[in-house]
Amino acid sequence: MNPRFHFQFFSSPCVVIWNTERMDDDRWTEVDEYVAELLSLDDAALSSALTDSDSAGLPHIAVSTTQGKMLELLARMSGSRRILEIGTLGGYSAISLARALPGDGRLVTLELSDKHAGVARANLERAGLGDLVDVRVGPAAESLRSLAAAHEEPFDFIFIDANKNQYPEYLELSLDLSRPGTVIVADNVVRDGEVANAASTDENVRAVRDFLELTARDPRVSATVIQTVGTKGYDGFALLIVQ
Ligand SMILES: C[S@@+](CC[C@H](N)C(=O)[O-])C[C@H]1O[C@@H](n2cnc3c(N)ncnc32)[C@H](O)[C@@H]1O
């Protein structure tokens, strides 16, 4: 029997089939909404960023409200003054990350799409964070190489959240822009649990597995993966520290 389905027999001759996966999804969303409301995680700048991203036709793939706050807290916990983000979209996670910065801090966020970058800049400006954030347009791997070639000061915190098929390359390039103590967070590495499927032929699953295998072999980092559920379904983050 598929363990995701429960069959309930009543005294009447009807059979009710509950899809427990659906029920779990509903509960995950309810908890995210409860936490976001209880802790006042949403505000005008964040919700307008989503509304304007939506109006501009951007896909609904930003981190959730609770995840955005987690990023802000991780960046604050690590005392980050220089943050790098790979994958800007409409600037939702960039707002969360930039909020962790001191007044003289800097967030560099990399985005392929000119349109996404434009929406992000407007959202960051409205959030009062425009002066702290540099949104750079182009393929992230090229932007990362340019940053390294310009001998940029190492970043304290790096958030990887762009196209999954280049995650292994993004890891290598991120390490070139790191120092001992740099925190690296990579989103979407669990992929509905498929990350544990060595036989997967999905390009993105294979790429996150390569990313994690590189992480495992690299003596420069110490890492774990945390599975997550919530409004965005079942996925997870890789957390790394450069040592
Ligand atoms: C998951 S979204 C980022 C979400 C964002 N971090 C947030 O939570 O608000 C991924 C973004 O990466 C961008 N992207 C895809 N391929 C890219 C590439 N090669 N270089 C830079 N950005 C890329 C996409 O255009 C998209 O905006």
Question: Helices and strands in order, then pairings?
Answer:
Layout lengths: L4 E5 L5 E5 H19 L5 H12 L9 H13 L4 E5 L5 H7 L7 E6 L2 H13 L6 E5 L2 H10 L7 E4 L6 H10 L6 E5 L15 H15 L3 E8 L6 E8 L1
Parallel strand pairs: 3-4, 3-6, 4-5, 6-7
Antiparallel strand pairs: 1-2, 7-9, 8-9
Helix pairs in contact: 2-5, 3-4, 6-7, 7-8
Bound molecules: S-adenosylmethionine.
S-adenosylmethionine binds next to helix 4 and strand 4.
Number of strands: 9
Which geometry do the CA atoms define?
globular
Strand count, sense and barrel status of the largest sheet are: 7 strands, mixed
* Structural class based on helices, strands and sheet pairing: alpha/beta
- Strands side by side in the biggest sheet: 5-4-3-6-7-9-8
Quaternary state reads single chain
Query: What ligands are attached or bound here?
Result: S-adenosylmethionine
- The H/E string reads EEHHHEHEHEHEHEHEE
Mean pLDDT: 93
